[in-house]
Amino acid sequence: MGAKLASREPDSSTVEGAAVTAAAPPPKTKRRSHSRAEQRAGTAFAVPGIVLLLVFVIGPAVVSLVLAFTNARLISPTPPEFIGLENFRRAFTEDATFHRSLLNTLLFACIVVPLQGGLGLVLALLVNQKLAGRNFFRTVFFLPVITSMVVVSLLWRFLYQEDGLVNSALSMLTGGAWAGQAWLANPSTALGAIVVMSVWQGVGFHMIIWLAGLQTIPEEVYEAGALDGTTPWQRFWHLTLPLLKPTFVFVLITITIAAMSLFVQVNIMTGGGPVGSTSTIVLQIVQKGFQQQQMGYGAALSLVFFCIVLTLALVQRRLTRDKDS
Amino acid sequence: MNAATAARRGWTYVPMTVLAAFFLFPIVFMVAASLKTDHQIFADMNSLKAFLPVGDLSLANYAAVFDRVPFWRFLGNTLFVTFMVTAFGLIVNSMCGYALARMRWKGRGLVFGLIIATLILPFDTTIVPMVYLVANLPWVGFDGLTPVLEFGWLNTYRVQIIPFIVNAFSIFLFAQYFTSLPKGLEEAAAIDGAGWLRTYWRIIVPLSKPVFATVAILTVVTSPATWNAYLWPLMTVQSEELRPVMVGVQYFFQLDTAWGEVMAYITMITVPMVIVFLVFQRAFIQSIASAGMKD
C-alpha cells in the first residue's frame, strides 16, 4: 500500500544554496527545488491532521492501554491505583456476562459475515444484468443504508412485537397456523431477529461494493468464456469469482469489523437482554465503563476487544493473501 | 436475444420483486403508520392496509412530536455539526493527504504508518477513555474580550465536532487520489511563481472534485458524528439545546410507547436524508463504490 504513495521526485540534484538560485532566472528561483521549503510546507500541511489524530485517535487508545491496568472510575475522589492484571483476571474468570457477550458477538459475526457478504453479491449480480428498471431495484436495495441504525432499530423493535407486523405477516402466510411470539423477548430468537434486521440495513452498502467489483471485469472475459462453451454457472465460478478477489477482501474485513462492533441495535432493541442473550462486547464496554463508571474495567474490555478485532483482520488478510501465491 | 434468454430475463424479476418488497416493507409501513392513530395501526396490522394510508388519517402524531421534542432545535444542531465535521474534515484530511502523497518531508513515512495503523481501530473501542479525555481537555473561552482558560469539553458543540474531523480513511482516500494526478503539476505552478498553498488551492483542489465528493458523502453517511450521531452525543451532551436528532428518540422511550408518535418522529428524521440521497444518487453510489476499490 505504501509503495503507491511514492512522492513526486523533487529535482534535488539541482541547486541547493540560495546564492546559486539567486543567479538563476527569476521564475525558477522559488523553492520548488529547495527541500527545506518543501520540508516546512509538507509539515505545515500535515500538522493539523497529525495533531488531531494524536489527540483524538492515538491519545484515547494510549489512555485505554494505561487505564486497563488500574481501578480508575469515571468520577472518583481517589486517584486510580495500579492493579496489574486484575481487570483481565476478572473479565476472563469471573464475569459471566462478559463471556456471554464474547460468545454472542462471535456468533453474530459468524452468521452476519457470510449472510451479508453473500446476499450482497446476489443483489449485485441481479442488478448488474441489463434489465429494464435495474436502477429502481438498486435504489430500493440501497435505501435502508441511508436510514440511520437508530431509526431502523426502533422501527424493527415495533415490527418484532408480539402484536407486530412480522407475526401478522407470518400468520397470514401460514393461513393462521403461526401463533406469534415476541421475538425480542425470547432468548432463543432475540439474536436471530437482530441478525435479520442488521443484514436488512447493511447489505445494500456491500451490494454497491460488489457491483463496483463486477463492473471492473471486462465484457471480453465473458465473451471468451462463452465461446469455450461454458455454462453460466461455470463462468461465475471460474471467471467472475476469482476476478472479484480484491473486492472480497474488502467486503470480508469491513463486515467483520462492523459485526464485531455490534452495539446500537442491541442498545435500542433489547439492552442486552433477555437474560444476556443479546449482550455484546461493545455493549459491555459502554455499560461497565460508562454507565457503571468502572472505567478501568471498561478499558480492559476495550483492550481485549481491540486485540480480537486486530487478530481477525490480520488473519483474514493473511489467509486471503496466501491464496494469491 | 433469443426467446429463451428473454424468458429467463423475465424470470429474474420474480426474485428481484420479492427482495424489493422485503427491503421496502418496513419503510412503507413506517410512513403509513405515522399518519394513523395507535388504534388504527394495530387494527390494520393483519392486512395489507398496514402499508396503505387508509382509515382514520391525520397529522396528529406529527403535531405531538413537536410538543414532545424541540424538533427544529435538534435538526439545526445535527445540520450544524454535520456541516462542520464534513467541511473541516475535507480541509484537514485533504491537506494531510496531499502532504503525504506529493511532498517530501521528514517523518512522512512514520505518519503514513500511523494512519494505516489507525484504519482498523474501531471508534467504539476507545469511546470510554475518549469521554474521560474530553471531560478534561482545556479550551480557551472568552469572557467578553478576556481570554479564559477553561477545562472540560462536555456539553458543547466542539465536543461533537473537533474529535471527528480527522479520519484516517479519508486521508488515505485523498492521498491515493492525489498520487494518481500527473507529475509535474507543482513544477509548472512554481514556474508561474505560485507557492505551495496556492498550488494546492488553485490547481490540485479543482482537479480533485471527485475525491472531495466521495469523502464528503462517506463522512455524512458513515461517520459516528454526523447525521447518524447517537452514542457519542448521548454520552457527552446532557443539555437539551445541544442535542442532535438521533438522540431525540430517547424522548419516546416510555412505559406505554405511543407508536404513532415514534413512527412520525423517525419518519421526520429519515425523510431529509432520503431526499438528499435520491437527488444525489449517482454521486452516493459512486463514492461508496470507489471506497471499495481501495486496497
UniProtKB/TrEMBL annotation, chain A:
The listed locations are: Cell membrane
Which residues does the UniProt record annotate as the domain ABC transmembrane type-1? Answer: 102-316
The entry's keywords: Cell membrane, Membrane, Transmembrane, Transmembrane helix, Transport
- Positions of region (Disordered): 1-37
Q: Where is the composition biased (Basic and acidic residues)?
A: 1-11
Family membership: Belongs to the binding-protein-dependent transport system permease family.
- According to UniProt, the name of this protein is Sugar ABC transporter permease
Organism of provenance: Glycomyces luteolus
From TrEMBL, chain B:
Location in the cell:
Cell membrane
Quick one: where is this thing mainly located? Answer: membrane
What InterPro entries does the database record attribute to this sequence?
A: MetI-like, MetI-like_sf
Q: Which domain of life is it from?
A: Bacteria
A Pfam family that this protein carries is BPD_transp_1
BP term (GO), one = transmembrane transport
**Keywords assigned by UniProt?**
Cell membrane, Membrane, Transmembrane, Transmembrane helix, Transport
Output the SUPFAM superfamilies linked to this UniProt entry.
MetI-like (SSF161098)
Q: Work out whether the entry's keyword set contains Transmembrane helix.
A: yes
Q: Which residues form the ABC transmembrane type-1 domain?
A: 75-280
Topology with regard to the membrane? Answer: Multi-pass membrane protein
| One GO cellular component term noted in the UniProt record for this chain | plasma membrane
Transmembrane portions of the chain? 12-35, 78-100, 112-135, 155-175, 211-232, 262-280
CDD domains linked: TM_PBP2
Q: Where is the signal peptide?
A: none
Protein family membership = Belongs to the binding-protein-dependent transport system permease family.
What PANTHER family is this protein classified in?
Answer: ABC TRANSPORTER PERMEASE PROTEIN MG189-RELATED, ABC TRANSPORTER PERMEASE PROTEIN MG189-RELATED-RELATED
Q: What is this protein called?
A: Carbohydrate ABC transporter permease
